[in-house]
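Revision sheet: structure tokens.
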Amino acid sequence: MKKLYYSIGEVSDITEVEAHVLRYWETVFNELNPKKNKAGNRIYKEEDIETVLKLKELIQEKKYSTEGAQQVLEKGGLEDEEKIPVSVKKDLKEIRLFLNKLLEKL
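Predicted:
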């Protein structure tokens, strides 16, 4: 299930963040900087997906402004963060996506 690189569509599916929002966040947050392949398509790594999940939590769930989220990222995260690591959350979201696609085929 693990891959070296993910497309913007795959990241959007995994994180449940629209592709246009991902492209916007790239312009605002230095921490989110996916590389581009020879065709010009964005290629996201595991670390990029973890950053997207952190941003989603801060902006969409905890209602931080983009400036506030930037400050939290610069500090290294929230002090009262949940005990579940972001990488585990990402893995669980990938598993859910896989199972949903499998369910559709049945």
